[in-house]
Design brief:
mainly beta; 6-stranded parallel beta barrel; two-stranded antiparallel ribbon; 14% helix; 36% strand
Length: 123
C-alpha cells in the first residue's frame, strides 16, 4: 500500500493507494525523480540527501536521458570526475555498467546540465 498526494479543488489530499511492488520506473523517469528529489533536498538545506550522481555512459543512440549543455539556468550542475562519483552532481564517464546512458543534444532535451569544475549539484 502506498501514499500519494492528489491535487484537487485548490488543496492537496493525501490518498492511500495500492501499488504493485513489481512496477518499475524507466531510467528516464528515475533520473527525473532523482533530479526532483535533489532540488527539494537542496531547497531544504540538505544537499547530502541528493542521490543524482554516478557512472554515466555517453551514447549516440538509445539513451536513458537526453541532456543539453547550457551555461545558464541548468537543472543540475555536473562535475566530471575520474573516480568516486559519490556526491551530488559528480559524474564519472564509463563505457560499461553505467547508472545512466546519456545523449547530449542541442535541441529538445529532457534536462539541462551545466558542466562545472567546482560546486556541482542542484541549486
Amino acid at each position: 500500500m502506498g501514499k500519494k498526494w492528489i491535487h484537487g479543488f485548490g488543496f492537496l489530499v493525501l490518498a492511500t493507494c495500492v501499488t504493485s511492488p513489481t512496477v518499475r520506473l524507466s531510467k528516464k523517469d528515475q533520473f527525473g525523480l532523482e533530479l526532483q528529489l535533489c532540488q527539494q533536498a537542496e531547497a531544504a538545506g540538505k544537499p547530502s540527501k541528493c542521490k543524482l550522481y554516478g557512472k554515466i555512459e555517453i551514447v549516440d543512440v538509445f539513451p536513458d536521458v537526453k541532456v543539453q549543455k547550457v551555461t545558464a539556468f541548468p537543472d543540475i550542475k555536473v562535475e566530471w570526475v575520474t573516480a568516486f562519483p559519490n556526491s551530488p552532481g559528480k559524474w564519472q564517464k564509463v563505457t560499461a555498467f553505467p547508472d545512466y546512458k546519456v545523449q547530449f543534444v542541442t535541441a529538445f532535451p529532457d534536462y539541462k546540465v551545466e558542466v562545472v569544475t567546482a560546486f556541482p549539484g542542484c541549486d
